[in-house]
Amino acid sequence: MQTHDLKRATPNQTKKRVGRGGTRGKTSGKGHKGQGQHASGNGRPAFRDLIKKLPKLRGHGKNRGQTVNSSARKPFAVNVSSLEVFETGSLVSPKTLEEKGLISRSGGRLPDVKILGKGELSKKLTVIACTASQSAKEKIEAVGGKLKA
């Protein structure tokens, strides 16, 4: 027996070859036509995949306030602490709030006003034609003021 007669018990495993073309002929190993064979044709940019994963703003749930019923009037928020500019016993209304510079007209008319409970109030006031949060109502009534719808 010679060394060239020796054989392995298990031969080397080789990958199955698939016909994709060589390195120099015809398609130069690119194997296909069009965008794929050009240097610039390297598929889509990575950030495109990130954009595709983001949800689209469709249907009732998304951006509803801006599209459906966009003409709805939202109340203008005024804190209780801002009402300190009024004299004790004076009347607080959207008109008087505009005169003091706390709110401004929108679309040529006075906005609806909602009084929120942030801050403290030390003056007795009568609030008319304004809605108020529960905490604001308690603070106004605690100093002897009134809230009329």
Give the SSE layout:
Blueprint: H1 46-53, H2 64-67, E1 76-79, E2 91-92, H3 94-99, E3 113-116, E4 126-128, E5 131-132, H4 134-142, E6 146-148
Describe this structure in words.
The chain is an alpha/beta fold and 149 residues long. It has a domain at 76-148: Ribosomal Protein L15, Chain: K, domain 2. The chain has 4 helices and 6 strands. It has helices at 46-53, 64-67, 94-99, 134-142; strands spanning 76-79, 91-92, 113-116, 126-128, 131-132, 146-148. It has a 3-stranded parallel sheet. The chain has a 3-stranded parallel sheet with strand order 2-4-6. It is rod-shaped.
Strand content: 5-15%
Q: What is the rounded distance between the termini?
A: 114 Å
Order of helices and strands: HHEEHEEEHE
- Biggest β-sheet: strands ordered side by side in the sheet: 1-3-5
Offer a few descriptive terms:
149 residues, alpha/beta, Ribosomal Protein L15, Chain: K, domain 2, three-stranded parallel β-sheet, 6 strands, rod-shaped
Concise overview:
This protein is α/β, with parallel strands linked by helices and 149 residues long. Helix content is 18%, strand content 12%.
